[in-house]
């Protein structure tokens, strides 16, 4: 009997032990960006228990008490096995991207934090691997692989970014496009975005939202670009150098420190170039200090400080005869006046994110932008001091409305800018007599709100809108002739920018989306107050309504990935640029334009076999069709209605091939075709179509688990095509052409030591 009771007691103990469970909780984040990962599979090793992470990357899982580890996996990331702690505590699990697999893209655009497959909107994404397909001396070739995006380089480091034709009003820099760097607005006080202050090698991720995104990002009809600087998930030191044709040389050095609770990066880059053309040298130095701190799993602090010291020369546009006779020459006046730009800039940003509970979260950022411009133009000499301060806050609330999962986002962004602009006579590159001295104060801001509802049958509805304000105050401190000052002001009525988006997920590999959005784009300070010293109070904001319909997904076991979007943007009061006989850019409203087109992105993985001699072989293409027309444009006595929109090609086709081997050898080939495009509003002068080809081959390997080497070389414009990548639109005196470099080569070596 005693043995019977003992056996019975042991049986009860084993049954209880077998049924006893423990709760495992935690969060899964991407190793580099520390963003929460959605839909990660978490399973108990040796058990049948499993779950997936929610929209905040969190999970809860019951496993037997004798379980020792969980397996964590997500398509496109390396699977990890994590040992369970002896004491009850939240797990923080970091996943690194799998280098030989296509990963599921999660986007932050429109504040959705959803997979691209579940996002209603045309968004182009460039990861670090796609940015590294090129020499990393510039973002131009990488951004031009996205359909609907055209980045131009009029002169060395003089960039212009166009999303669906948005560069019409930008003689240089970027206008009518919002750009954020690590969630911080990147903009000069005069409304121009200085992309040339960035070093391409410090950018680790790019998202491009095409079309009006005012419902979340405020004023603008051209789109929004979200940039993130590179981050490191491990402690390391790094250095490298590059040399190339036309006196190209660059070097960098950096160090990073990474722990479970923080990571810091300090990096110095310098790039110089003698230039393909006369009067086109460049020298840029940048220092980036960035970091992230994770005191708890609910709280994150991140910051960056980016300092840039930039100098580049302006060769000026050529007539067709000059361009064809000798594309490497500069305009004589530009050489005589030493036309160039000296620009010092500092961008500071601090972001605090807090997850209060499963429903409430907030992210708040503060920023400061400072710059000093010392600029001999052909017609005058400018010295500008710019400073901007501002902040942005975003609060998210998760709930249910009528039993439908709902995500509400509301917030605000504000900025106050000051410009002191002094214009002198240019005496062969030196400041002469003062012409006028202006002080401009700009106050702008907006509030926004957005609701995202998960409807039955896997429909996701997004409703959003923002209310925007802008006001300029101009004080003319003195004029060179009379010494008398004056004051002007210009305010714009509050503008509401709504957006409606709907996406239907038919199955995991296919979805369709549609959206309607409206936006407005007020004149920038540089357009209201051009270089001739006038104050253009008649200039009106652009008003646009955008319609989109698209599909995206994959076929054949995700070997073929596609993203197709059709759009139409109806724009009223379109702002266009004109050049005066004094070579001064002035602006006017053009009535109306209709910009409609098709954007197609395709990628096909021919081979993906990690153990084979060729582990990855992939081809891809991007096609853009633009049917952009003036609808009502009658400047002076002319009637340009029905003409093709200036500076916009009808067809752009980009294609490439990527190959990798287990030994570390890789190959990237890229070709781009651009059809002819009109250079003036009358459509009487066109730039010729062109086809350019380039490639990069390299060896990337980890040696001894701590040393990382990347040795590569490449060629750009391999066929030595004569083309102009950044034309001067409506150039006075028939000066339209800015020749791009001919055939050029580069080679580089990068080393990194991990600890």
Describe the fold and architecture:
It is a single chain. The chain is mainly beta and 755 residues long. It is built from seven helices and 42 strands. The strands form eight sheets. It has a 22-stranded antiparallel β-barrel. A five-stranded mixed β-sheet has the order 10-15-16-13-14.
- Based on Cα principal axes, name the global outline: globular
Q: What level of helicity do the residues show?
A: under 10%
- Compute the number of strand runs: 42
User: Which value, in Å, is the CA radius of gyration?
Assistant: 28 Å
Oligomer state of the chains in this structure:
single chain
**Percent of residues in beta strands:** over 45%
How does the helix and strand content classify structurally?
mainly beta
* Count of individual helical segments: 7
Arithmetic mean pLDDT: 86
Unreliable spans are 4-18, 99-103
Question: Can you summarize this structure?
Answer:
By secondary structure, the chain is mainly beta. The relative contact order is 0.11.
């Amino acid at each position: 009997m005693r043995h019977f009771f003992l056996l019975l007691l042991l049986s009860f103990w084993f049954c209880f032990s077998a049924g006893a469970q423990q709760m495992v909780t935690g969060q899964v984040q991407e190793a580099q960006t520390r963003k929460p990962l959605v839909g990660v599979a978490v399973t108990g090793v040796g058990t049948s228990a499993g779950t997936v992470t929610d929209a905040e990357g969190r999970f809860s899982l019951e496993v037997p008490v004798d379980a020792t580890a969980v397996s964590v996996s997500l398509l496109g990331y390396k699977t990890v096995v994590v040992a369970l702690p002896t004491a009850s505590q939240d797990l923080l699990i970091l996943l690194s991207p799998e280098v030989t697999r296509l990963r599921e893209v999660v986007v932050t655009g429109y504040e959705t934090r959803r997979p691209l497959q579940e996002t209603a909107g045309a968004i182009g994404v460039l990861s670090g691997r796609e940015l590294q397909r090129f020499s990393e001396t510039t973002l131009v070739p990488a951004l031009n692989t996205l359909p609907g995006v055209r980045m131009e380089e009029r002169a060395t480091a003089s960039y212009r970014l166009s999303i669906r034709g948005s560069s019409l009003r930008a003689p240089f820099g970027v206008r009518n496009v919002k750009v954020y760097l690590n969630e911080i607005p990147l903009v000069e006080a005069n409304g121009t975005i200085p992309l040339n202050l960035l070093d391409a090698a410090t950018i680790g991720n790019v998202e491009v939202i095409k079309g009006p995104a005012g419902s979340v990002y405020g004023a603008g009809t051209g789109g929004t670009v979200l940039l993130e600087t590179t981050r490191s998930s491990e402690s390391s030191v790094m250095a490298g150098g590059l040399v190339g044709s036309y006196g190209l040389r660059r070097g960098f050095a950096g160090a990073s420190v990474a722990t479970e609770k923080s990571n810091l990066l300090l990096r110095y880059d310098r790039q110089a170039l003698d230039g393909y053309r006369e009067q086109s040298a460049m020298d840029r130095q940048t220092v980036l200090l960035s970091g992230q701190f994770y005191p708890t799993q609910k709280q994150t602090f991140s910051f960056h400080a980016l300092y840039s010291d930039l100098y580049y020369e302006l060769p000026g546009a050529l007539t067709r005869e000059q361009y064809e006779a000798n594309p490497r020459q500069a305009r004589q006046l530009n050489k005589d006046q030493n036309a160039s730009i000296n620009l010092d800039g500092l961008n500071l940003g601090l972001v605090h994110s807090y997850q209060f509970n499963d429903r409430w979260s907030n992210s708040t950022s503060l920023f400061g932008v400072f710059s000093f411009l010392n600029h001999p133009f052909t017609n005058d000499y400018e010295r500008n001091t710019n400073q901007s301060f501002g902040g942005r806050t975003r609060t998210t609330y998760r709930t249910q409305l009528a039993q439908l999962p709902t995500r509400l986002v509301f917030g605000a962004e504000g900025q106050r800018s000051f410009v002191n602009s002094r214009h002198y006579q240019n005496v062969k590159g030196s400041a002469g007599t003062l012409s006028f001295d202006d002080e401009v104060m700009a106050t702008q801001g907006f509030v926004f709100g957005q609701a995202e509802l998960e409807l039955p049958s896997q429909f996701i509805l997004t409703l959003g809108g923002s209310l925007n304000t802008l006001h300029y105050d101009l004080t003319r401190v003195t004029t060179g002739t009379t010494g008398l000052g004056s004051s002007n002001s210009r305010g714009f009525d509050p503008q509401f920018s709504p957006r409606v988006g709907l996406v239907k997920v038919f199955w995991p590999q296919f979805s369709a989306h549609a959206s309607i959005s409206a936006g407005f784009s007020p004149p920038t300070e540089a357009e209201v107050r051009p270089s001739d010293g006038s104050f253009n109070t008649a200039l009106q904001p652009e008003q646009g309504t955008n319609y989109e319909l698209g599909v995206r997904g994959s076929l054949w076991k995700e070997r073929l990935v596609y993203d197709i979007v059709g759009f139409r943007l109806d724009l009223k009061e379109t702002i266009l640029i004109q050049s005066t006989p004094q070579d001064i850019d002035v602006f006017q409203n053009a009535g109306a334009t209709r910009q409609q087109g098709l954007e197609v992105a395709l990628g096909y993985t021919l081979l993906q076999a990690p153990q084979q001699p060729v582990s990855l072989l992939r081809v891809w293409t991007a096609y853009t069709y633009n049917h952009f027309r003036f609808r009502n444009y009658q400047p002076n006595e002319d009637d340009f209605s029905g003409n093709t929109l200036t500076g916009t090609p009808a067809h752009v086709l980009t294609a490439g091939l990527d190959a990798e081997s287990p030994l570390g050898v890789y190959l990237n080939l890229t070709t781009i075709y651009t059809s002819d495009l009109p250079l003036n509003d009358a459509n009487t002068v066109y730039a010729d179509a062109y086809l350019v080809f380039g490639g990069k081959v390299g060896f990337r390997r980890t040696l001894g688990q701590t040393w990382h080497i990347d040795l590569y070389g490449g060629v750009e414009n391999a066929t030595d095509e004569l083309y102009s990548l950044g034309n001067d639109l409506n150039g006075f005196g028939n000066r339209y052409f800015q020749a791009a470099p001919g055939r050029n080569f580069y080679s580089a070596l990068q080393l990194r030591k991990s600890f």
